[in-house]
Design brief:
Elements lengths: L2 H6 L9 H7 L5 E7 L5 E7 L1 H10 L3 E4 L4 E4 L7 E9 L6 E8 L20 E3 L5 E3 L3
Parallel strand pairs: 1-6
Antiparallel strand pairs: 1-2, 3-4, 5-6, 7-8
Length: about 140
Amino acid sequence: MDHYELENGNVLSLDFTKLAKVAACEEDLIPAVAQDADTGEVLIVGYANELALETTLEQGMATFWSSSRNELWIKGKTSGDYLEIVEVRVNCEQNSVLYRVRPKGQGACHVKDEQGVARRGCYYRVIGEGGKLTIKPS
């Protein structure tokens, strides 16, 4: 399946090897979830190392560690679709963080809709009967 079909198609093709790929990037990482502070919508699930968390707290913008590119990723630095930090929470076991954010731009996802606008968040498709994916209404 090509990249376009993976991101825009209606066929379910989950990557159950993702955590193995994250482990192979040789960074110590924790899950970092970006949630819209006003609506509660989950926008992105990524990973953070110490540098990403420090940068998030210092810059006030959601920052992750890209496990695929093996580099710091300040969300919106190239697209302009920043996620402004309202607060950062930590879970009870201190092995994940929640970035409560306010989106500053067109959308939080790198995938664009039919009009070329960034999708609001990365969770824009619903799994239906037989594993068929449908785009949820905005």
